[in-house]
Specification:
The radius of gyration is 20 Å and the shape is elongated. About 7% of the residues have low confidence. It has 188 residues and is mainly α. It has nine helices and no strands. Helix 7 crosses helix 9. One of its GO terms (biological process) is DNA-templated transcription initiation. This is RNA polymerase, sigma-24 subunit, ECF subfamily. It holds the Pfam family Sigma70_r2. InterPro entries: RNA_pol_sigma-70-like, RNA_pol_sigma-70_dom, RNA_pol_sigma70_r2, RNA_pol_sigma70_r4_t2, RNA_pol_sigma_r2, RNA_pol_sigma_r3/r4-like, WH-like_DNA-bd_sf.
């Protein structure tokens, strides 16, 4: 049975949440849970870490909702909370994996026609193969649109390191695409 709160707009739920209406908080949680998990899973190693980051995000959301400006949209604001919570959750592990690795060799040129055949699920699987720091920087820059300076602030690294990690992430992705998709097509 659906709650009567499910018919309320985001703004109406926000107003009720400001009054500590727990049913409105539950409705807002249910409305944005999948959205938050989708974001968090890109930054966390496993589902448990992602769930912890999502729950932390909702706690932060409900603690700060009274300061939320009415003219803003909640989704982008909440997205930033989720990204920051996910990064915070991963920060200590990132520091352990932040060592720069050297492993570059000449490689075959990429066949861009074959790349067009790769779907989003394939890309997400490839991202999971990247070292954590590369994956996080790639997500922040390419998917969430943060600048290198913003990434540097979030991860507490120099902006030049952000650029290096992004470049290496792209190089590794190119190699993975070549080895998993293009070499296979050439063999067929």
């Amino acid at each position: 049975m659906k709650s009567s709160y499910s018919k309320f707009s985001d703004q109406e739920l926000i107003i009720k949440c400001r009054k500590d209406d727990y049913k409105a908080q539950e409705a807002l949680y249910k409305r944005f849970y999948a959205y938050a998990m989708g974001i968090s899973l890109r930054y966390c190693i496993n589902r448990d870490d992602a769930l912890e980051a999502v729950n932390d995000s909702f706690i932060k959301l409900f603690k700060t909702i009274k300061t939320f400006e009415d003219h803003r949209l909640i989704k982008p604001w909440f997205r930033q909370i989720v990204v920051n919570s996910s990064i915070d959750n991963r920060r200590k592990n990132l520091k352990h994996s932040a060592a720069l690795d050297i492993e570059y060799a000449d490689e075959k040129p990429t066949d861009f026609n074959a790349i067009a055949k790769i779907n989003a699920e394939d890309i997400l699987k490839l991202l999971d193969c990247l070292p954590e720091i590369h994956k996080v920087v790639f997500n922040l820059y390419e998917i969430d649109g943060y600048s290198h300076e913003e990434i540097a602030d979030i991860l507490d690294i120099p902006s030049s390191s952000s650029r290096v990690y992004l470049s290496r992430a792209k190089d590794k992705l190119r190699k993975l695409v070549n080895s998993r998709f293009l070499d296979h097509e050439r063999a067929v």
